[in-house]
Amino acid sequence: MECVVQGIIETQHVEALEILLQGICGVHKQSLRIHELCLKSVSNLGLVASEIRLLCDLEQPEPTWTVRHVGGPMRGAGAEQISVLVKPMLESKVSKNALRLFYALGYKLDHEQLRVGFAFHFQRGAQITVTVSSINKMLKLHATDEAVPVTPGIQLVEVTAPASSENYTEVVASVSSFCEYLAPLLHLSKPGVSTGVVPTAAAAAASLMSDGGGTKL
Amino acid sequence: MPIKWVLHWQPNAGTTVNTQILAEVSQCVESINGVKGGRWKNTLSFYKPMLREQANALEFPRDFLGISLQEQPNKHYMVIRGQRLIVEAESSIQTIMEKLQSYKTRGALNFEGFQYQLGDFQLRVGKVISIHSENLRGIVMEMEYLPISSWETSHQIMGEFFDIWQEALGKRSLPGHFAHIEPNFSEYGLSDQYTSQHTAVQYASIVAQMIATAQSSQPVRN
């Protein structure tokens, strides 16, 4: 399982966010460059339609591939009340020819994108990952070198943490409380529940940039 | 990693494999001073597409295999032999395949037995059984040579050892022999340096051969 919240930030404030994250987490950022391919089963295959994601990490000297399967999010009154999305998620690292395998099995490319940005990985009540990235689309098939931003001037911020059915309430609490630190710069919510940019972002960013993140907001 | 050949028992025409042959093969390894060691086990599953309509079933591979090897307990190998395709994945891929509900495993074979040390060679003799019934489907033997990891370089010594082994076993006049299939690894994109992917490809090849043999020896039904 995985806990997720998302938000957006204007590219001009990303540097301030980076300073803030660096201050909170105490670890260095890692560059992020991921080619993401979303595949869907052809109509006759499977009792239900299925979807699988192939992620190619282009930051590594030799690109590495991961297969990711995301299940339907948790439902019910309990899930409604929490501000974090909890969904089943499984990953498996695979050899580089996995795309050929899924094509052979009857999966077709639905869409692909390139995420470029950075990530922070740290322990704070849970193993939290914050990624700040711009989503790019490819004008030609797999042409990651010629990708263009889908939303110029806006970047996606995603906070994720692995969880299990036993501990997800604690993980949700850790993610929620972490999100509060970022509140002056951006608002984080369940994916699909867009809340836009926050009005205090410019002022908060200016304050962070002037003192290098040394002061608590 | 060390090179290995995966051999399978090829029964003579009109005969089938039985536990007596397996016992004789094991005794033969011990008679040439093989020192019995621990147990080993590999598993091979047959994945079949789950289709809403059977009409265009031919669009999907019928020879999609999943292989788990004891030598790589955290990995799972997926092979489509007809397309000369092998993919190495972490074991969690098996759960992902279940969640997708597009392919499901219909039947699986276990390869299991004992391993023997013989100088620089490691031999693993095993029975091939269906996981749903204990019926013996075949006999398999892994012949591993520890000092060499290049397929080409090892070819001569492996060939010589194979001949010695065949000669030793020949004295027992068993109704069949061990056969060695040499897949064209480069067609699978595999290099000369031996890896577990080579092992998985060999298992896929011997299973295809065992199925072909079993089908051709079945009595013709009216």
List the helices and strands and how they pair.
The complex is a heterodimer of chains A (217) and B (222).
Chain A: E1 2-10, H1 14-25, E2 30-41, E3 51-57, E4 64-70, H2 77-81, E5 85-87, E6 89-94, H3 98-105, E7 107-123, E8 127-138, E9 147-149, E10 154-162, H4 168-182, H5 201-211
Antiparallel strand pairs in A: 1-5, 1-10, 2-3, 2-7, 3-4, 4-6, 7-8, 8-9, 8-10
Helix pairs in contact in A: 1-5
Chain B: E1 3-11, H1 19-31, E2 35-49, E3 64-68, E4 75-80, E5 85-90, H2 93-100, E6 103-118, E7 121-130, E8 136-145, H3 151-170, E9 176-180, H4 196-217
Antiparallel strand pairs in B: 1-8, 1-9, 2-3, 2-6, 3-4, 4-5, 6-7, 7-8
Strand count, sense and barrel status of the largest sheet of chain A are: 10 strands, antiparallel
What percent of residues of chain B are in strands? 35-45%
Share of helical residues of chain A: 10-25%
How much β-strand is present in the residues of chain A? 35-45%
**In sequence order, what are the helices and strands of chain A, one letter per element?**
EHEEEHEEHEEEEHH
Mean pLDDT of chain A: 93
Distance between the termini of chain A: 32 Å
Shape assignment of chain A? globular
Q: How many strands in all of chain A?
A: 10
Q: Helix content range of the residues of chain B, please?
A: 25-40%
- Structural class, judged by helices and strands of chain B? alpha+beta
Q: Please summarize the sheet with the most strands of chain B.
A: 9 strands, antiparallel
The general outline of chain B is: globular
Task: Provide the residue-averaged pLDDT of chain B.
Answer: 94
Which structural class is indicated by helix and strand composition of chain A? alpha+beta
In oligomeric terms, what are we looking at? heterodimer
The low-confidence parts of chain A are none
Tell me the radius of gyration of chain A. 18 Å
